[in-house]
Design brief:
About 50% of the residues lie in helices and about 0% in strands. The protein contains 13 helices and no strands.
């Protein structure tokens, strides 16, 4: 379908979602959601994350669910280079499942995305399993947003000293441990999320990372994230320049 149709569908979902939720049609326990909003919890126990990981994904439904997501994250899953929306393409399936489940149950604050992620809009736990599989299989942006490139030596050193243990030497992350792939992510998005993690606004952050970066200066932050934004994924994960997702043409 055309991207314009996906945008109309997504905007319609956003306005309908609030009413559906208020009417009790969403399959989210409101009391549990409100309780979780006050928690800072890296790895919540039980719930949709654990269930979705056990389900066999349906690629066709994953594509259909992603049509709603494509209005913001773009049909290719590349987001926007200005960092308004992150690149999702190529992200580990486990990480996508975790973040979707955390947004739905209140462990991660994302008011922009929340209405689109409701079960009443995209479906239940199976939908999380399906769309995560679809997104993980999308080829990554060959030209993501990067920083100024004026402090890369410091960024390289900070990354080696502080980030490699979890995110890997090339920003590849670790699917088994829910550590995200950060290579080729948009610089401005990295900066925003990094600051939210440091300030405690992203409540589902790994506490080890919060501790690791708590003494970083602004210069440190910008330098290391500029370096991260320039880390390149393996060639087989990257789309050719100008690629368009044929599923939405």
């Amino acid at each position: 379908m055309k991207k314009t149709f996906a945008l109309s569908l997504a905007l319609g979902a956003m306005f309908a979602a609030g009413a559906a939720f208020a009417a009790g049609n969403a399959a989210v326990d409101q009391q549990k959601f409100e309780e979780n909003k006050a928690k800072k919890e890296w790895m919540s126990q039980g719930g949709e994350r654990e269930e979705a990981l056990t389900l066999k994904p349906d690629p066709k439904n994953g594509r259909d669910v992603y049509e709603v997501c494509s209005a913001c994250h773009m049909p290719e899953g590349w987001g926007l280079t200005d960092g308004t929306f992150p690149q999702l393409a190529g992200q580990h399936r486990t990480v996508i499942i975790k973040q979707l489940a955390d947004i739905r149950d209140g462990h991660r604050d994302n008011p922009t995305m929340y209405p689109f992620a409701l079960p009443s809009e995209i479906g239940g736990t199976q939908a999380i399993a399906d769309v995560s599989e679809y997104i993980a299989g999308l080829k990554m942006n060959p030209d993501n947003g990067i920083g100024k490139g004026d402090d890369l030596e410091l960024g390289k050193k900070l990354y080696a000293d502080n980030c490699v243990r979890c995110h890997g030497p090339n920003g590849e992350g670790d699917a088994a441990k829910f550590y995200p792939r950060i290579q080729a992510q948009h610089y401005e998005y990295l900066v925003r999320q990094y600051r939210w993690i440091k300030e405690g606004k992203r409540r589902n952050s790994n506490p080890e990372m919060v501790e690791q970066i708590k003494n970083f200066s602004d210069r440190d932050t910008l330098a290391v994230l500029d370096y991260v934004s320039r880390l390149k994924p393996p060639a087989e994960l990257v789309a050719p320049a100008g690629w368009k997702n044929p599923d939405f043409q």
